[in-house]
Amino acid sequence: MPNIRLNKMVKFAMVLLVVTSFAIAQGPRNGTVAGSHLLVPQGARYLSGGGATANGIGAEAIYWNPAGLARAESNVDVVMARRSFIADINISYIAAALKLGSFGSLGLSARTFNIGEIERTTVFAPDGTGEKFTPTVFVLGTTFSRLMSDRTSVGVNLNFINEGFAGVGASGVALDAGVQYSSFLDIPGLNIGVALRNFGPPMRYDGSALWIDAPVDGSNRQSDWYKVVAAPFDMPFNMDIAASYNMDLGTGSLDLGFTFENNNAAQDEYRMLARYNFGTLANVRLGYLMSAEVTDDENSAIDESLLRNIFGSYSFGATLNLAQFTGVNVSLDYAYFGTWYFNDNQVFALRFGL
Question: Fewest CB atoms less than 10 Å from the CB: which of 44, 74, 86, 217?
Answer without folding.
Answer: 217
